[in-house]
Design a protein that fits this description.
single chain, alpha/beta, Rossmann fold, Aminopeptidase, 3 domains, eight-stranded mixed sheet, five-stranded parallel sheet, 24 helices, 18 strands, globular
Amino acid sequence: MKSIAIYSTNNLMPGNRKWKNLSEKYNCVFADYATWSSDFIEGENCQLIQEADYILFNLVLSDVFDNTQAQEVNEQALNVAFMPLESLLASTNKHILVAYSSYEFNIENVVSYAKQSSSRFRAVFQFENWLIQKVQDNKNLYLLNLDNQFSQIGISNCFDSRLYYSGRCRFSSQGLSVFAHSLLNLLQGFEQARKKLLILDCDNTLWGGVLGEEGIEKILIGQDGVGKAFEDFQKQIKHLKSQGILLAIASKNNYEDVMQVFDSHPQMILKKDDFVIFKINWSDKAENIKEIAEELSLGLSSFVFWDDNPIEREQMRVALPEVMVIDCPEEVAEWPNYLQKLTEFSQFQLTAEDLKKSEQYHIRAKFSNEIRTVANKKDYLKSIEMEPKVLSLTEETLDRAVQLCAKTNQFNLRTMRHSRDDLLKLNELGPIGLGSLKDKFGDHGIVGMYVATIQDRRTAFLDTFLLSCRVIGRYFESWLLNQCILSLKNKGVEFLYAEFIDSGKNKVSQNFLNDHHFVNAENGRVVLELNNYKFEQLEVF
């Protein structure tokens, strides 16, 4: 169980039952709310910070500046007040989360606010912009805007002045509940890979009405009322696609009728090219989704299924429990905001590969269609003019390396979820290589990675070896392993130890080590003698 050190400018009531769900998944260690500044200055010398996987700092602006000090809140004053936070940022690469609230600092009565509130508004503006600048300057710093989370149930309901004066706790029971829930969602953003594919129905999902019964002229999309809600829902789907989420359709419908809507309906926001695959037929949707998983080489656990029909949703849960099924609100008017709030599609930072994701899976589909028809696979792979390249771990590639560790499930020998800090340390222990690939279909980007740690003068261990599923079938994994071996041989290493750890999702990589001539060694591991090994598959490159 990972641990989180929790600091605060006020009492967070560590024994309160509202922290129970968070404490079941993380070891929550609450520091005394008066010690944050001294512990942060000690930084790497503070035992609590040393032992924690994550560090949370809860910051309420009115704890630091009195409500009458609005004129004094400026960049210089903020730098002085939070110098200990700067010390902590300078001393560790661990994830630091700042949960903050400026609500109580900004409270004004309606008469004062009408003409005299500008100083408080500017103070809060200065404070939030100061935090945003710190996030931009520090890649291990993340923000949790508590006022934004509290607003969903009413900010005033989340504060309790009686608790503050009796026990120095700013937040009500409701406020602590929202805080703990939001923090859990944020932490799981580090721990869990985001979903990759949104699978959508058509009738009463992308538009209102049943196309086969009402015809293209009468379906609801883009008009006033509910048609406008469907249009806004499509806009939000389109935004997800721009963020690297793949889109697919699984609909019981006539294929030609649906294509006519995409081709000719003037109010359609989504176009055919926005989708990587269509399954429009009268077959069972679960079977169609199994085919999607096979054709795209994606795991079912990375799928999200959105269908207005509760019967279809329940059948999907029973048939394919790995697929995340959305119980969408009954009112279509709520769908755009509901989809926007789903954290399963979110990630902290987009990479260049994310922005090209849909294009890359269109490439994958073309490759899959062609290779099914060839007689000689190796000759075909030679013909597509593959250009592999190995890149070092640098500031430019580090974010992609962290992302690959976090989200690669199927071809991943050990499924190590390494952080930025982990990778920087591992880079000192042996070679790290990131593999990129181009071919006649296009640029696939950075799609693989190895991490090897040198144990002694003659041996090394394959800590991480992973490959994006969209390039499986090209022997690229063999080429990448060969690059790892060449790098180790240049350092005098003679034996490479490795292991496969079953995560429940990585069966596709189970036989990789045996297929590449690793033999059994001690402690359940396998070993490869580097000097006598030749890669037969490399002739395709």
